[in-house]
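Thread title: Can someone regenerate the structure for this chain?

I was given the following input by a collaborator and told the matching structure tokens would be attached. They weren't. Posting the sequence so someone can regenerate them.
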Amino acid sequence: MLVDSHCHLNFPEFTENIHAVRQLMHDSQVGHALCVSVTLDKFPEVLKLAESYDNFYASVGVHPDYEDIEEPSVEALVELAQHPKVVAIGETGLDYFRLTGDLEWQRMRFRTHIRAAILANKPLIIHTRSAADDTLRIMQEEGANKVGGVMHCFTESLEVALAAISMGFYISFSGIVTFKNATQLKEVAQAIPLDKMLVETDSPYLAPVPFRGKTNQPAYVKYVAQEIANLRGISLDAVMQATTHNFFTLFKYAKLIN
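Best answer:
Regenerated them for you:
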């Protein structure tokens, strides 16, 4: 069995076909999915999915890309995280690729999420793009190692991966690892410990080969796992067992539900 550790099934692409998505998950041996929040106004949609299906879980957080929206407070995040099907805080982090200028508000939002995660005692889902140094620095300054978490949709260097792992974080690979030109990422997938690895789709984005350019969905996480198995010279079953065990080790509240 596999787990899609990061997807956005409340997005419009899935509104009318969630039952078909779930059936294909079942057919592809994908037993669970973590539905990830990106804004507070859409969080009820994420939570409804988790409440409606035993094998779906939710996170609560505000993505770093979103400006001029309801800003989360530590208190609000902690309160929302009390729901038993909310297993993580995020996604949060830094993104210097899509946004430019004075991004101190983004860094403060990131700090807010880390503080909330520590108070709620739930792990973090961290997004970082073109901002690895500041991401790691803030993680260290705020004590993110107290709760750990996952570096979602990882695209950074092995050095960054190992620095995150040293703080108790897992590294999650998306469909990008199947892309021919993702040489550095393939090397990371070969090098890091298997017991620090997760797999994800980031649906509806980043569909793996052979579906690249199409709408992604949780069932396709199997192609991510297969690529990692090929890169490491191990069986798909070994990757499935390890990443599923890792998911329920990190997201301990999901394990308690089951």
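Residues 27 and 106 are 40 Å apart (CA to CA).
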